TrEMBL record:
Name this polypeptide is given: Cyclase
Gene3D superfamilies (alphabetical): 3.30.530.20
Domain of life: Bacteria
Residue ranges of domain Coenzyme Q-binding protein COQ10 START in the record: 10-134
Record-linked SUPFAM superfamilies: Bet v1-like
Organism of derivation: Sulfobacillus benefaciens
């Protein structure tokens, strides 16, 4: 199963970034590849969310279970239904002297073995670029909130 990992250091506090990450419904406001996120269910440390995103012009829809580990600076997600056979991953935050190291790991599988050798390399590049944009947008939003005194 292809895996993509993106790590960036963001000059913002870990707690501010975690707050932005935890408020997924707001992603469409500052992420151009995310059209819509709805929270379908919510528990103490989890949500079930429905996503509509664009990747290289194609729309993808899925429902995922998100599990929150604030004390560890982690959020995991696993697709429960959707356009891909498998889509899962994890956000990890680590305090560093320059701010916060933000890592997004994703694993995916199209579920079409005959086309995997053609689709996977292209998808990995597209997902890597999209993940990089997501990490930067979250970092920028958290940094702005911190400077405005909202974090």
């Amino acid at each position: 199963m292809p895996k993509v990992t993106v790590t960036e250091v963001v000059p913002a506090p870990l707690d501010a970034i975690y707050r932005v990450l935890s408020d997924m419904q707001q992603f469409p406001r500052f992420m151009k590849s995310v059209d819509e996120i709805q929270i379908l269910e919510r528990g103490d440390s989890w949500t079930v969310s429905q996503w509509i995103t664009r990747l290289q012009g194609a729309k993808f829809r899925w429902i995922e279970r998100d599990t929150f580990f604030p004390e560890q600076g982690r959020i995991t997600f696993v697709q429960t239904e959707g356009d891909l056979k498998t889509f899962q991953g994890e956000w990890r935050l680590v305090e560093v002297p320059e701010g916060t190291e933000v890592t997004l790991d994703t694993e995916f599988e199209f579920g079409i073995p005959m086309l995997a050798s053609l689709l996977n390399p292209v998808a990995k590049l597209a997902i890597r670029e999209n993940a990089r944009e997501m990490v930067r947008a979250i970092g920028s939003t958290a940094k702005d909130a911190t400077q405005e005194g909202k974090a």
